[in-house]
Design goal:
The complex is a heterodimer of chains A (307) and B (339). Chain A has 307 residues and is an all-alpha fold. Chain A has 12 helices and no strands. Chain B is globular, with a radius of gyration of 24 Å. The chains are: A mainly alpha (307), B mainly alpha (339).
C-alpha cells in the first residue's frame, strides 16, 4: 500500500513536469489524472517501485538487519555454503555474504545517486550554456560532447580510474566524466525548446539579464524531466560502478561492494554462492529502476497509448 | 550527390574526430597524477634516478607535452602508433592481432541479438499486452539490467564448471593449433587453412561469450522494434490494408515490419558502442584476447601509446559503423536517397 501511494505521489510531479516545457507552465489536470492511472494499472511497475524502496530501507537499516558485520570473519565456516546460520553462505575469509550484500547496498545506492547528481550538475551547466547562447559556443561544446559520447563509457571510465588510481572516489569521478555529455545534450535540447517560449521572450524584452533568464526562467521549466531521467539512471550508475569495482578499479576487495564481491567469485568455481548472490542483488535493483523507467516512458509517450 | 561521394565525405569526418580522440586521450593520460614510470618499472628500478631518466628519455616523456603530442600525431599520420610500453611491440601490431578477436565476438553477439530481438519485438507489438508481450518486456528489461560480468561468471559456472557443455574460456582449445594468420579471424583463417576441426572448435568457444555479450543488445533491439512497430501499426495504411481484407500475418510482416525497421537499424548501429563497452568486460571474464582485454591491461599499466591506439581504433570503428547504418537506411527505405 505504502509503495503505491508513494508511486502516485511521485508520478504527479513527474507528469506535471513532463508536460511543463511543452505546454504552458500551468498544471494540466486531465493529463495528470490519466497518466498516473496507466502507470498504476501496471502491477509490474508497482512491484518495481516497491523493490527500489525496499533496497533503500535495507541500505539504511543494514547495521540492524544484517546478521553479521561486513568484515567479521568466521574462520571455522570459511567458504561455507548457504545454511541457516549463513543464508547466502560465506566467502574465502569466512565473511557472511548476506551481510556484505546488505552493507554493499549502503555503498552502491549513495554512490549511484552521487554519480548521477554530479554528472547532472555538470551536464546542466554546460548544456544550458550551449543551448541558451547558441552560435559558436554551442557548436564547440556540442562537438566536444559528441566526441565524448563516441567513446565507450567503460573504456573512458577505465582510463580515468586507472590514471587517478583505483578507489571509490575516483570511480565516482570517472562515471561523472563519462556521463555528463549525455545530460548536456538532453539539457541543451530542452533549453532550445524553452528559449523561444513567450515567458522567456517577455522576460528578455523587459530587460532581465541573460544569466537571470537562464537561472530563474528557463531552468525551472526544464528541471523536472531532467530530474526524472536522472533518477532512472541511478540504476545504470550502480551497474557501472559495480563494473569498475569488478575490474578492480573501484572499491577495494576489503570493502563490502557488490562488483568486487562478484570478482571474488571468479576464482572459486565450486563455491557458486560467492558470486551469484551479489549479482542477484545488482540485478534486482537495476531491473527495478529500469522497469519504473520503462513503465513511465510507456505511460508518458503519447505514441504508445492505445487508441 | 552519389553514394561514393557521400561515403567519401563521411570518411572525411574521421579527421577531426581522430584529432579530437587523440587529443582527448592524450590530455587524459597526461593530465593525471599517476606516473607511468612507477607503473612500469619495479619499485627498485623506480628509485634509481638514472634508470628513471633513461626510461623517460626512451619514451619521450622528458619533452614538453605539446611536443610529445606533435610527435605522436606526426607518427600516427604515417601509420606508426608507437610502441606499447608493456608489450614492447608496435601498438599497430598489437591492435592488428587483437581487433579481429573483438570483431568476431561483437559480430556474433550482434547477429544473436538481431535474430532474437527483431522477431520478439514484432511479435510483442502484434500481440500487445498479451502474455507474450509481457514476457518479452521482462526478458528485454532483464537484458539491459543484468551485469554482464556476473552473467559471464554464472554462464561459466553453469555451462563450463557444472555441465561441461562449454569449452574452457579462451578463443581456442589448448590442444588446437592456431591457423596461420591471414585475417586474424580464427573462423575465417581456419576455413582458409581447410581445418574444419579448428573452425568447429573456434565456434564452440565463441557461443557462450557471444550469448552473454548479446544480453544487452537483445533487450535494446526488442524494445526498439516493439516501439517502432506500435507506431507504424497506428498508421493509416495499416488500417487500409486491414480494411482491404489483407491477412493479419501479412499486414504485420509485409506492411508494418518493413516500415518499422529504420529506427531499429539506428539502434543496432548505436548499440555497437555499447557492445564494445560490454566486450571489455566480457573479454576479461572469458580471457578473450581482444581489444577489450588489451584496453584493460594497458589502462591499468598506464601504457599511453596503447591506450591512444585503442582510442583511435574505437573511433574509426564508430565512424564506420555509423556510415554502414546510413548506407543501410538507403537500402531499406528508397525514400531516403542520400542528399
Amino acid at each position: 500500500m505504502r509503495s503505491s501511494t508513494h508511486a502516485s505521489g511521485w508520478l504527479d510531479v513527474a507528469v506535471t513536469t513532463e508536460a511543463g516545457p511543452l505546454a504552458a507552465p500551468v498544471r494540466q489536470p486531465l493529463v495528470q489524472r490519466l497518466l498516473p492511472h496507466s502507470f498504476r494499472r501496471s502491477p509490474l511497475a508497482i512491484i518495481a517501485v516497491g523493490i527500489v524502496i525496499a533496497w533503500i530501507l535495507l541500505a539504511l537499516g543494514a547495521s540492524v538487519i544484517a546478521p553479521y558485520g561486513p568484515v567479521n570473519q568466521d574462520f571455522v565456516h570459511r567458504l561455507a555454503g548457504p545454511s541457516a546460520s549463513h543464508l547466502f553462505g560465506t566467502d574465502p575469509l569466512g565473511r557472511d555474504i548476506l551481510s556484505r550484500i546488505l552493507f554493499g547496498a549502503r555503498l552502491s545506492v549513495p554512490v549511484g545517486i552521487a554519480a548521477v547528481v554530479l554528472a547532472l550538475v555538470i551536464g546542466m551547466v554546460i548544456g544550458s550554456v550551449a543551448g541558451f547562447f547558441g552560435g559558436y559556443v554551442d557548436e564547440v561544446i556540442m562537438r566536444f560532447t559528441d566526441l565524448m559520447l563516441a567513446f565507450p563509457t567503460i573504456i573512458l571510465a577505465m582510463v580515468i580510474t586507472a590514471a587517478l588510481g583505483a578507489g571509490i572516489k575516483n570511480a565516482l569521478i570517472a562515471i561523472m566524466i563519462a556521463w555528463w555529455p549525455a545530460y548536456a545534450r538532453l539539457v541543451r535540447g530542452l533549453v532550445l525548446s524553452t528559449r523561444e517560449r513567450e515567458f522567456v521572450l517577455v522576460a528578455r524584452a523587459v530587460g532581465v539579464s541573460d544569466a537571470r533568464v537562464l537561472v530563474r526562467h528557463v531552468i525551472p521549466n526544464i528541471i523536472s524531466p531532467i530530474v526524472i531521467m536522472g533518477t532512472l539512471d541511478v540504476g545504470n550508475a550502480i551497474l557501472t560502478f559495480a563494473s569498475l569495482s569488478f575490474l578492480g578499479l573501484g572499491a577495494t576487495p576489503d570493502v563490502a561492494e557488490w562488483g568486487s564481491m562478484i570478482s571474488l567469485g571468479r576464482t572459486y568455481f565450486d563455491q557458486w554462492w560467492i558470486g551469484t548472490f551479489p549479482g542477484l542483488a545488482i540485478l534486482s535493483l537495476v531491473l527495478a529502476f529500469n522497469i519504473v523507467g520503462d513503465s513511465l516512458r510507456d505511460a508518458l509517450d503519447p505514441r504508445f497509448r492505445k487508441l | 550527390m552519389n553514394l561514393t561521394g557521400f561515403i567519401l565525405r563521411r570518411l572525411l569526418y574521421l579527421v577531426p574526430m581522430l584529432i579530437g580522440i587523440t587529443l582527448l586521450t592524450f590530455t587524459l593520460s597526461h593530465a593525471v597524477p599517476a606516473d607511468p614510470v612507477a607503473a612500469n618499472l619495479g619499485d627498485q628500478a623506480a628509485s634509481d634516478p638514472t634508470i628513471v631518466a633513461a626510461f623517460r628519455h626512451e619514451w619521450g616523456l622528458d619533452k614538453p607535452l605539446y611536443q610529445q603530442y606533435g610527435i605522436y600525431l606526426w607518427r600516427v599520420i604515417h601509420g606508426n602508433l608507437g610502441v606499447s610500453i608493456s608489450t614492447r611491440q608496435p601498438v599497430s601490431t598489437d591492435l592488428r592481432q587483437r581487433l579481429p578477436a573483438t570483431i568476431e565476438l561483437a559480430v556474433a553477439a550482434m547477429l544473436i541479438s538481431i535474430i532474437i530481438g527483431i522477431p520478439l519485438g514484432i511479435l510483442s507489438a502484434a500481440r500487445r499486452d498479451s502474455a507474450v508481450d509481457q514476457s518479452a518486456r521482462v526478458i528485454s528489461l532483464i537484458g539491459v539490467s543484468v551485469p554482464v560480468f556476473w552473467l559471464a561468471l554464472v554462464a561459466i559456472l553453469i555451462f563450463y564448471a557444472r555441465l561441461g557443455w562449454a569449452p574452457a574460456p579462451g578463443r581456442l582449445s589448448a590442444s588446437m593449433e592456431t591457423p596461420p594468420f591471414h585475417t586474424g579471424f580464427i573462423v575465417i583463417d581456419g576455413l582458409l587453412a581447410g581445418r574444419m576441426d579448428v573452425v568447429k572448435d573456434a565456434l564452440g568457444h565463441l557461443v557462450l561469450p557471444a550469448l552473454v555479450l548479446s544480453s544487452y543488445s537483445v533487450g535494446v533491439i526488442t524494445r526498439m522494434t516493439r516501439g517502432s512497430m506500435l507506431e507504424v501499426l497506428g498508421e493509416d495504411f495499416i488500417r487500409t490494408a486491414r480494411a482491404k481484407g489483407v491477412f493479419e500475418r501479412r499486414v504485420i510482416v509485409q506492411h508494418a515490419a518493413r516500415n518499422s525497421l529504420i529506427p531499429v537499424i539506428t539502434i543496432i548501429g548505436l548499440s555497437f558502442g555499447g557492445l564494445l563497452s560490454g566486450a571489455v568486460i566480457t573479454e576479461t571474464v572469458f580471457s578473450w584476447p581482444g581489444l577489450g582485454l588489451y584496453a584493460f591491461s594497458s589502462a591499468t599499466s598506464l601504457d599511453f601509446p596503447a591506450i591512444m591506439g585503442v582510442g583511435i581504433v574505437v573511433a574509426v570503428v564508430y565512424v564506420l559503423v555509423n556510415l554502414l547504418v546510413d548506407v543501410a537506411y538507403a537500402l531499406v527505405d528508397p525514400r531516403i536517397r542520400v542528399a
